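INTERNAL AUDIT FORM
Audit reference: QA-55
Scope: verify that the stored structure record matches its stored sequence.
Auditor: D.O.
Record contents follow.
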Amino acid sequence: MMEGIKKIGFLFLTILLVSFLVGAQTTVTNMIWLLGNDMPVTIGIFISSIYQDFVRMTLTPSPPFPLPFLPVLITLSSLITYSVAWLTLKRVKIQKKYVYGIAGAVSLIFIIYLIPVAFGVDVLAGARTPAGKISLIICGYLGGLFFGSRLCKE
């Protein structure tokens, strides 16, 4: 019972971590764009923007949804890919952290490529360029790596 609660807690922390990384990536790419257009961006504005984007994208519900959209989206895709990773680990002996890292990356690949196909709009502003897509996939990998490494310590 306690082990299951720990896993759910680690999953929750992983979703928060990935949400923060995705929000920070979006903010950083927007700040780089502003700097490229000779807009004054100070370190204070930079840090404040990352904080505000984290709060608004991760912690604040966006109507008409009763829950924050980004973490819900990450949760749904992660549940699918982490379930496949769990089933894979039942049959193949590989280190959990790497399997879950790949699952986290695939989770972000789903969000980056399937949501625009299904709805005709990029949900993540940081995914407009190939470099942005790659950095978001790395964010997903890091989240999965974190989740898998926490499971290895049990």
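Auditor finding: record pair retrieved intact. Residues 2-152 form one domain.
Action required: none
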